[in-house]
Structure formats: structure tokens, C-alpha cells
């Protein structure tokens, strides 16, 4: 496995692979890797001739400086894990290598057809512009055949799909396929996240109520619909939404920022459980955790 820190070196390595007729899978990450990332890398290694993993804590997607400063970083450990997983290249640039000073300080504006106006987008203004800024640059540099993202950041995945399939950038990235991979959970149910590293043992225990409540809500959804079938009822959806919020908020140390039950494609509030996903953000002490649950596919 080769660790690369400049764009030029990366482009040369990728060009050599392309010239040899090899397919390329890209896994963009911000490091602090865990089993969730490992599942993406394993899949990229299995489905492509060459697997490139980027490890870059992207400053332009943080609207909270403290969050950026506290984001866990451990490139040595990440590189060891990636090597064991069979990745071929790790791209770990500095912010200065990735962006010009102007790019670092300009807010990029992309059109996401409203997908960025809800949930995370509403709470973290500019966040998805920063994500798309870095992801589109990585796509441009690596020219991958497939790129892998976790479903834990469901809104991010929807926005990246939109960028590749439907936005003004559609077609820019050739036949690139975006692959969404399921959430990986601890045996306890807690969704794996780099932010879990910032939880104390006690907070980690407290945080279990989040996934537990989401799983319970699948039953509540069945109960809340008159005939036991997941069908249309605005009232049923609202009822389940509120019950999830109340149940999590009743746990000392947890505070729900939002729980929205939305359509999996439009991300707009829905009055049916069909094709619906519930997305939650919860503060566990100072740590902001996200999770989601699909009511039906
Ligand atoms: O999901 C993440 O870790 C980041 O948002 C991503 C996609 C690597 C872009 O910085």
C-alpha cells in the first residue's frame, strides 16, 4: 500500500492504473477509521482492481471550529488498518495541498434541489456545500468507477447521488456509480461513528437508547397504522415521530435535535411509512450523534 500526499502523485498513480485497464474504487473518509469504514473498504477491494482511500478531515464542511479541532485524527492507525484490508493507495493531503487559500475561504454554492434545506442541512448551514466541494474534487482527481459511502450519513449519500445523477455536474464523472453501504452497529446496537471515540464509557451506555428507540419504533409504526400494514397515515407518522423524540429525551443525558421521518428519495416529510426513513440527531453530553432507520425499503 502506498501513502500519497500530493494531488500530482495521486493523479500519476491513478493514470498508471487506468492505462493498465484497471478499475478503480474510491472510499472517501475523514479518518479515525472503524469497522463501518472497513466494510466500505472491503467492498471496494472486492469489486475493483484498485482501491483508493482518502483520509482528509475536510475543513470546509465544518461550520463549528471546535468540532473541527476536536475531530479525532490518527493516520498511523488508519494506515495500518487500510493496509490489512488490502487498500492499494491512501491519499492523505494537507488542507493546503487540497485547497488554495481562496477556495478554503469561499463558500461554494451548489444546487441540491432542496435536499440540503432539511435536517443536517438546516442545522449545519454550508455543511453539504463543503462535502460536495471535497467529494467532487476527489472524483475529479481519482476518476473512480465506483465510490462508496455509508448509509449512516443518509442525507449526504442522497446529495452525492443527486450531484452525480441529476445536478449540473451530472455527466462530469463518466459512468461513476455511487454505492451506499448499510450502517454497521456494535453488538449493542450503537451505530459506529468516529465521534463515539469522544464518548465516556457512561455516555456510551446512555447512547444505546438511541438505536434501541429507533428499532422499537418499527413496532410502533406497525401499531400506529390502523390495519397493522405500513400504509398511508399522516397522523400515524406524526405519532411515531413524537414518540421517538419523547422516548429519547426522557433519558437523562440525551437531547434530540431533530427526528424526521422523510421520503428516502426527496428527504421531504412524508405521510406514509412506505419508502420512509427516520433520521435522528441527538446530543449525548457534548457529542452530536446521528443515526437512522428505514421503515420500508
Ligand atoms: O462522510 C464523511 O466522512 C465525509 O463527509 C466525506 C464524505 C469523507 C467528505 O469529507
Q: Any key phrases for this structure?
A:
19% strand, binds pantoate, three-stranded antiparallel beta sheet, 2 domains, alpha/beta, Pantoate--beta-alanine Ligase, Chain: A,domain 2, Rossmann fold, 297 residues, six-stranded parallel beta sheet, 11 helices, 9 strands, 42% helix
Residue share in β-strands: 15-25%
CATH fold-level name of the largest domain: Rossmann fold
Heteromolecules bound: pantoate
Molecular shape: globular
Neighbour order of strands in the largest sheet? 1-4-3-2-5-6
User: Which structural class best describes the helix and strand composition?
Assistant: alpha/beta
In sequence order, what are the helices and strands, one letter per element?
EHEHEHHEHHHHEHEHHEEE
Total count of strands: 9
Which whole number gives the mean pLDDT? 94
User: Given the structure, what is the number of helices?
Assistant: 11
Q: How helical, in percent, are the residues?
A: 40-55%
Please tell me the CATH architecture of the largest domain by its name.
3-Layer(aba) Sandwich
Biggest pleated sheet: 6 strands, parallel
| First-residue to last-residue Cα separation | 37 Å
Topology:
Elements: E1 2-4, H1 7-19, E2 24-29, H2 35-47, E3 50-55, H3 65-70, H4 75-85, E4 89-91, H5 95-98, H6 101-105, H7 119-123, H8 127-142, E5 146-150, H9 154-165, E6 177-181, H10 201-224, H11 234-249, E7 254-263, E8 276-284, E9 287-294
Parallel strand pairs: 1-4, 2-3, 2-5, 3-4, 5-6
Antiparallel strand pairs: 7-8, 8-9
